[in-house]
Design brief:
The chain has helices at about 10-20, 50-60, 65-70, and strands at about 20-25, 30-35, 40-45. The longest helix is centred in the first third of the chain and has 10 residues, at about 10-20. The protein is of the alpha+beta class. A three-stranded antiparallel β-sheet has the order 1-2-3, covered by helices on one side. It is about 35% helix and about 20% strand.
Length: about 70
């Protein structure tokens, strides 16, 4: 398993968008992403650096591996 780099919320959103997720709405400092055919939605905090556990949880919820996410960065 690859190590997670420090990633901002904005950069993480761009990577998820490359994987087919689209911006649905924003609630406070959290951007909500949805994907057609997916039951889950992703709530990405717009922080300067995402905590590694938060980022890993978002990647897992998106149904991706860490390596797939890193390729999209």
């Amino acid at each position: 398993m690859a190590a997670l780099p420090y990633v901002s919320g904005e950069r993480a959103v761009r990577a998820f968008q490359r994987a087919g997720w689209i911006k649905d709405r924003q609630h406070g400092s959290h951007l909500i992403l949805i994907k057609k055919g997916s039951v889950v939605s992703l709530s990405v905090p717009q922080h300067r650096e995402l905590a590694p556990g938060t980022l890993r949880s978002l990647i897992r919820s998106a149904g991706m591996s860490v390596d797939q996410f890193l390729d999209l960065l």
